[in-house]
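Anyone? Bumping this.
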Amino acid sequence: MSDTFDVVVIGGGPAGYPAAIRAAQNKLSVACVDEWKNYDGSTAFGGTCLNAGCIPSKALLESSELLHRAQHEFKAHGIKVGAVDFDLGAMQKRKSTIVRQSTQGILALFKTAGVTPLQGHGRLLPGRKVEFTAHDGTTRTLQAKHVVLASGSQPMELRSAPFDGKHIIDSWGALELDAVPKRLGVIGAGVIGLELGSVWRRLGAEVVVLEALPDFLPMADGAVSKEALKHFRKLGLDVRLGAKVSGAAVKGGAVEVAYTDAKGEQSLTVDKLVVAIGRRPYTKDLLAEGTGVELDERGFIKVDDHCRTGAENVWAVGDCVRGPMLAHKGKEEGVAVGDAIAGLYAEVNYKTIPSVIYTAPEIAWVGQTEEQVKASGRAYKVGQFPFAASGRARAMEASAGFCKLVAAADSDEILGVHVIGPMAGELIAEAVLAMEYSASSEDLQRTIHAHPTLSEALHEAALAADKRAIDFPNR
Ligand code: FAD
Ligand code: NAD
């Protein structure tokens, strides 16, 4: 096998593997190096997203939501099922099957595209050489014209509550539990805390979420955060804001957590503690001396707007570089770099990266929040439409939440769209497309939406921005 490639990608997660595939589609010779190992020692492409993030979490969210609906909604539909029970082992098995299908799918995609998969560690040496150490310890030096770094991220550890892998666990550990903990503590009311907190709450755990900030979901639109907190509390998530953890100790098989909040010193005893306070870029043993690739003060690989590092023809994409840590952001960067290397036009529109929180109700947004627009001083208008006024949402027994659109008062440009409600993550795609094509709110108003669909809520929100909504009173 040749050790010379046009492109060597280090990292086979959702940023690295699309870079490899796109470069190969552009008729370049490509190798993708990935060192991922699962708990059982098996290797797999797909990185955090496929093995321990997006995919397994969504599998468990779906199963636990179905259970919750069976327990709480079937009756409203007139469906009698008797006592509803579940088998966690079967749920976890289903999740693992989905993960395996997804990760094996990448190998199949590599085969079709002509990407050489190399499983083991990659280390960039000066002169675009990559030292590859296979899992069996054998080493080769690859020579590349271009190198793409896509080494991803890892969970942040809390010094006062270090991971022990058994009682104090990270998000991956929280996805692999083989029994429902009676009491689950979660540190961090971010995306992971809310998604995994919801999973285990629906499966029966008492869940307490400790969040250091006084505000809930501050990155979301204020109206959405307020509505979301109401629903999470209704589900039974005990979200405690302004809670600063000072220590956690394992005693007698339980975790005793000490924290302070506005009322003073508090304590909490749980069976498992998930620490989900964010992730940090992962670049361990990635860069040899003298490569010219620099890290910033937070450990991210420094890149320009086109993902170029300071070293010639060395690129970096995904969680290891600035920007939101999202799989689709990494994918767009990977694809753009795969094109740029081949001399094709490539650009990532960082203004239209959607965010989705896959809870019930689901939360999704793109663009600026109302608070951000207000702070910018720009004159704006807002249209909001509740799912309670949507026939389809009511038919789905999912009428919680709303769709909100923020547009510029002068130009009518859509500045942000915020959805909390059924299928929000799917609905946001229309808003992303609209913003990508610089659509105005009027363009959305004049676009025909099938009836009865959830997408009518976005249509009506756009109409409401001009006080022209049909299915809800304009105020
Ligand atoms: P990673 O996916 O981390 O992949 C990096 C790969 O590079 C890994 O396989 C790693 O082993 C390998 N690697 C690192 N260094 C080397 C080296 N030197 N040599 C060889 N290989 C190396 N995002 C979403 O958009 N939607 C979601 O629903 C979502 N859910 C999530 C749920 C959870 C629980 C978590 C933890 C994350 C979730 N994310 C989600 C975030 C998403 O997983 C990340 O943004 C995404 O995986 C980043 O992709 P990446 O390719 O940059 O890095
Ligand atoms: P996050 O940044 O979403 O949330 C972390 C939360 O922890 C924040 O609210 C923060 O204020 C809080 N926090 C920080 N330090 C704390 C402390 N000492 N005590 C209490 N609270 C503290 O991070 P995450 O939930 O760990 O997720 C990591 C990354 O994974 C995120 O960037 C996210 O985008 C990505 N992710 C995305 C999805 C999705 O797209 N649906 C799902 C899961 C994870």
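Late reply, but here is one note on the structure posted above: Residues 168-277 form a domain with the FAD/NAD(P)-binding domain fold (CATH 3.50.50.60).
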